[in-house]
Protein 1
Amino acid sequence: MRLNVRMRYAFTLIELLVVIAIIAILIGLLLPAVQKVREAAARMQCSNQMKQLALACHNFQDSTGSLPASVMLHPSVSDPSNYDQNFGPNWAVLILPYIEQGNLYNSIANSVTNYATTGDSGWRSIRNQNVKTFLCPSDSGADTLCARAGGNWARGNYGANEGPGMHWNGGAVGVTVLSSGQWRDNNPSGFASEYYPSWTAGMSGGGALVVNGGTRLHTFEDGTSNTILIDELRIGWNANDIRGTWAMGQTGASLSSGNGRIDTPTPNVSLSGYDDIQGCQDNPSIGMGCCGCNSWQVTAKSKHTGGVMVGFADGSVKFVSNSVSQQTWFQLHSRNDGRVIAGNF
């Protein structure tokens, strides 16, 4: 009698372990490549968005005669660097009609118009609106609204370049000054001090976008291709950190001020006490070092590897490396320093 015996085939434990090990190795080899592709795509999207914002500023000038204000400040504001005061609409709010957000802008248009004379704060009703164009896909934290200045402020990653001076009232290196009942760009000169290198002595440092507006592209003495219009900023690492907040007209939130100082020398500096941000919590271990004073200065930051995206006043967008020299970084943020750019960027 012949017996038909069915043989059952299966993986042995050793074979199974070998297969798992091979799969793990392949995943380990593939993952960095996938991450690089994702970052490249995110960087391209960030670049495209920044270009939209720069061109929106151009269109704003075409419509109104000048570039948008970095932030509108009513004369009743005594300290522009204090978020508890009644700061007004910022550049990002003002360009909403030029980035296909006309309906959102129209909902607060009367308040924006009235702010200059009455200090109307009704425009803040849109502060919790998430506008994708203001968010870099490489950053995180967009789901955590900022709890300061009344709370519920949506996040963003782009800041108007106010120049290498600080966002405070007057002083030798201040970018804002109350003059004849109007906040204005102080366009300071004579930067050399304990916080600026000696080579800045006598140099002007007017920003591209300034308090209450008025700058025009054709008056940029250093040329639009040599002047940064918009910097990249990182979102604060918790709800109490105002950094990276699109509609809030404060340094670090939507304003980039003081780039090129000794304690804000180049992009992505993360040392303890370097950014001056009101109410912040110092966390240099994740690249978010700060001083909890008022919001006077901030280093441009991103989560892109090796540098930051910046939008220039000519509408171009470039990636600036962390290794850029301090002098070049200073000059790129001044519309009228009158010097040849010190190095490559």
Protein 2
Amino acid sequence: MNRKIVIPAAIGAIAALTVGLWVFAGARRGGARALRIYGNIDIRQVQLAFNDTGRIRRLDVQEGAAVHKGELIAEMDSARFADAVQRAAGRVGQQKQILAKLLAGTRPEAIAAAAARVAGARADWRNAVLNEHRMAALYRGHYVSREIMDNAQRAADAAAATLEAARQNWILAVKGPRKEDIAEARAALEADRAALALARRELADTHLYATASGVVEDRILEAGDMATPATPVFTIALTNPVWARAYVPETDLSRVAPGMRADIENADLPGRRFSGWIGYISPTAEFTPKTVETTELRSQLVYSVRVYACNPTGALRLGMPVTVVIPRQGRSAALPAHPCGS
């Protein structure tokens, strides 16, 4: 056999085999790059209720209406809550004046009046003392009785006590209010302010706002009904983000982790892929649910996975069957707290 022909042929065969193996390996790598699991769309719900008890005055949205976070959707009769705010505001104003009066101290006119009462009491005391001395001299000369002398002494003692009382009142007027009284007035003012804040909060609670964007799924109460914190008024379906409940086989559990990027597809929406992320993986295994069970999978253990996805147009609907595609390569970058907005 001609070596010039055999050697090139062998080299060509080796090259072809190498390329074939590389293509085959690449095909296997490409086939294993993404994990495809199946499930259905679940939409989260929130039930909105007033934070107080009262009669509903009006409801602003109907079932099926789209609402946005912070939107006013219902109102309760607020008359008695407004009256409570006015009463609490009046108490705050009154207590402010009491505190201001204590902080201002005693008026100069009041101090002058107290000083004048001291002067008057001192004059009365001096006169009573002189009268006592006169009565004592007359008693020694046997011109008056013992009773008259005793009355003069009692009058002098009473005048002395009145003078001391007037003097103490003047001292209190000069010193002004006690610091303990001022502290008590401050505490009472803070309590009244807290009561006013509570009354205003209760008045604000007569308005019911949407806590998140979504669609009104159920209008439970109507205008005129009695609302309580335990009785929901609306059920809101939170449509963005939505989440798909899917199931990962036990053999593929190591390929998924919270925070990984995942895409959602639906056969009725060809060519559309919704970007999402894995938010939850069940810590316990379960048998394949009947909704996705086949004859071959009846005894297979799976783990429930929640895959969140932004749904701004509402294309993903409750109960829709979907395919979740999870890339093989590691986790995506950290996602913000609300990647789909409020």
Protein 3
Amino acid sequence: MPGGDACLLESNILLRIGKSDDPHHAAIAHALHVLAGQRVRLCFTSQILGEFWNASTRPPDKNGFGLSVAETDRLARVIERDFEFLPDSREVHDRWRSLLVVHTVAGVQVHDARLAASMYVHGVGRLLTINVRDFRRFDGLRVLHPAELQDAR
């Protein structure tokens, strides 16, 4: 089971950090403050940054944020500066492939399995996400919704 001193931040968290009008913004800001106060390593992967870029630059009428490439690049640089990067490797790939078969993963959920594989390989025990349900199948990972940290200090 991965250690608990690190937390992977899913793209839906990163997308909302700077979006003060998002209904989840306050809970996310508080959750990040709590985790940082506990000295938890806050992490991201290349896949997460790719998902962030995709949603940031996609037009609003296609469920995106409609930001320019320049603005998205500026935000991505902040993510890269402030959070720990977990690199891909052959080991992550092999673990991902195994998870796909073991959990009979199909469709878009292959991306969630890749994040779980990265967490297992890098010893990251927690995931902060709005989509908690998508990750429940992966044993030994603590999947947190930002609202779960509302009462924590």
